[in-house]
Design a protein that fits this description.
Layout (H helix, E strand, L loop, with lengths): L8 E3 L5 E3 L2 H20 L10 H22 L3 E3 L2
Parallel strand pairs: 1-3
Antiparallel strand pairs: 1-2
Helix pairs in contact: 1-2
Length: 81
């Protein structure tokens, strides 16, 4: 990581990133809201069985959202593992 970039997240393991700055918390909050909105707009309910033929647009939207959040936060992680 370059010295001029601010650390947004600290990585304690491969799957555990903890937000340590305002930008990190903002990215985490926006990611949670976007995920919730994707579920709401695609009418996903817990009593309904998950079918790939029916829910493929939701999966595609989640992949795009995850890729965009990765691009935004890339380079702002301090790794400890």
């Amino acid at each position: 990581m370059a010295n001029d970039k601010k650390t947004w997240f600290k990585a304690y393991s491969f799957r555990c990133w903890i937000p340590v700055s305002q930008e990190g918390w903002l990215v985490t909050l926006v990611a949670a809201v976007v995920g919730f909105m994707i579920l709401l707009t695609n009418n996903v309910y817990s009593d309904e069985p998950f079918r790939l033929t029916q829910h493929w647009p939701m999966i595609l939207e989640m992949i795009v959202a995850i890729a965009l959040f990765h691009l935004v936060s890339r380079g702002h992680v301090e790794k400890h593992y």
